[in-house]
Design a protein that fits this description.
Elements (H helix, E strand, L loop, with lengths): L2 H30 L3 E5 L19 H4 L11 E4 L6 E5 L21 E5 L2 H7 L6 E4 L15 H11 L4 H26 L4 H12 L11 E4 L21 E6 L2 E2 L2 E2 L2 E6 L3 H18 L8 H18 L7 H6 L2 H5 L47 E4 L2 E3 L2 H8 L9 H8 L3 E3 L2 E4 L7 E2 H8 L1
Parallel strand pairs: 1-5, 3-4
Antiparallel strand pairs: 1-2, 2-3, 6-7, 7-10, 8-9, 11-14, 12-13, 14-15
Helix pairs in contact: 1-4, 1-5, 5-6, 5-13, 7-8
Bound molecules: glycine (GLY) and manganese (II) ion (MN) (2 copies).
Length: 444
């Protein structure tokens, strides 16, 4: 399918998406006693004592309704029984390029009012009284002060975990886009380039700028792969290209992908580690099905990764015991993944139900970001990893379990940093999972 056909698909799916959102909003407003929903797109912010704007991040609740991620000072108005209305701010500004006039598939399904200033937008907003107003406090316009009712936000966030057909299509697009970057990045690694040059190859292939990325790319050579959210991209060359971990996504109409790959460069032991993590990762992806408790996937990851450590001889200990004693957490110190969508770590990962309450993480697993039972069309990441993190290894060295560790092998593998492999996976009703990332790699 080419880009035009994909755009046509989005256009076809948008009316149903809008129907789902209005039905969710109807229920949320009805249950909480509000008459309407007013969602601010957001305002530009400025650095302290400076006239340079900070990068604009649109209100995620706004981009849920509209494929407009760059639009400031605008509003979505929804009153049950009426068409959604978009107050579209197109400033008269010759210092900057204003947004284009409203155009695209969404315009046929909403009422649009074009305004030039935030104050003019305020005149088109319905009464603030009995309105659920979603936004930052500083986006207030007169008496339209964001109140962010917890009941409304909680209900909408809870429902958002299940993606509409439109959202799934957007997320497939985001995966394909990221995969173009991943392939270019791997090639740049094979050519012996710097982290910075690899990152630039990624951006070039995706057509994204740094600011378009759903999160800062993690581009890690060698030991840097042991830093879970390694935030630099060095422009100098390392002594060698032993390993390469890249955790990088892309966006399509405001929806994210979040993909990690780890590449070796000829060391058989490290490659066995990569292959072991990959086998575990694929088995975990297969568990992404409606009715499955995501916490069980996380716990299964610990067991599977402990088996990899045992099989490679890194730790001579029963896998179950490695999990019980926390040894597996030394090498796998993060959660197995999270909800994905409008935000890379999407909201409501702990929500017990539409009306509130939360589901605890399993004891001893403080970084898991999703504890819900999966439902059809949830999209989650599955991202197991094994790392050699000096700080955590120092902790293990001081414990009795240190006796079971092959420290010579740990020292060897430490030079590669670690391994993470991450796919974006959809739970499908009555069928096996859809792996958006693998499908995109297969298609590329
Ligand atoms: N890229 C951040 C994460 O994988 O959660
Ligand atoms: Mn990631
Ligand atoms: Mn992730």
């Amino acid at each position: 399918m080419n880009a035009d056909a994909r755009h046509a698909t989005l256009a076809q799916l948008y009316p149903d998406h809008l129907r789902t959102l209005t039905a969710r909003a109807d229920a949320a407003l009805d249950d909480s006693g509000f008459d309407r929903l007013l969602i601010a797109s957001g305002r530009l912010r400025y650095a302290f004592h400076d006239d340079n704007p900070l990068p604009f991040k649109v209100n995620p609740s706004f981009k849920a309704w509209l494929p407009l991620s760059d639009l400031t000072d605008s509003w979505l108005v929804y009153e049950p029984g009426r068409r959604p209305k978009v107050i579209y701010c197109q400033p008269a500004d010759y210092w900057h390029l204003p947004p284009s006039p409203p155009q695209g598939y969404w315009t046929a399904h909403v009422d649009v009012v074009v305004v030039r200033t935030p104050e003019e937008a305020a005149r088109h907003l319905p009464a603030a009284e009995r309105s659920a107003i979603i936004g930052e406090p500083e986006w207030a316009l007169g008496d339209h002060v964001p109140n962010n009712p917890a009941l409304v936000i909680g209900r909408l966030a809870y429902a958002r975990a299940a993606k509409t057909a439109y959202e799934l299509e957007a997320m497939r697009m985001a995966s394909r886009r990221a995969v173009r970057g991943h392939r270019a990045a791997e090639q740049a690694f094979r050519e012996g380039r710097s982290e910075r040059a690899i990152h630039e190859a990624y951006l070039h292939a995706t057509g994204h700028s740094d600011l378009d990325l759903p999160y800062g790319n993690i581009v890690a050579l060698n030991e840097h792969a042991a830093v879970l959210h390694y935030q630099h991209q060095r422009h100098d060359l390392p002594d060698a290209h032993r390993s390469f971990l890249i955790d990088a996504g892309a966006q399509a109409i405001g929806y994210a992908s979040d993909i990690t790959r780890t590449h070796g460069n000829g060391d058989a032991t490290f490659q066995a580690l990569v292959d072991g993590v990959e086998r575990v990762q694929q088995a975990l992806c297969d568990r992404v099905r409606p009715g499955v408790d995501y916490r069980d996937i996380h716990l299964a990851a610990h067991l599977g990764l402990a088996e990899v450590l045992r099989d490679l001889g890194v730790v001579r200990m029963d896998a179950g015991r490695m999990v019980e004693t926390g040894v597996s957490a030394t090498f796998f110190p993060h959660g197995i993944g999270h909800l994905l969508g409008l935000q890379v770590h999407d909201v409501a990962g702990f929500a017990a139900g539409p009306d509130g309450g939360s589901i605890d993480r399993p004891a001893g697993h403080p970084f898991l970001r999703l504890t819900r039972v999966l439902e059809a069309d949830f999209v989650v990441t599955i991202e197991p990893g094994l790392y050699f993190i000096p700080m955590l290894l120092d902790g293990l060295r001081a414990r009795p379990e240190a006796a079971g560790v092959d420290w010579t092998l740990v020292e060897h593998l430490s030079r590669f940093g670690g391994v993470r492999i991450e796919d974006n996976v959809r739970a499908v009703a009555g069928a096996g999972p859809e792996n958006l990332s693998r499908d995109a790699f297969a298609e590329a």
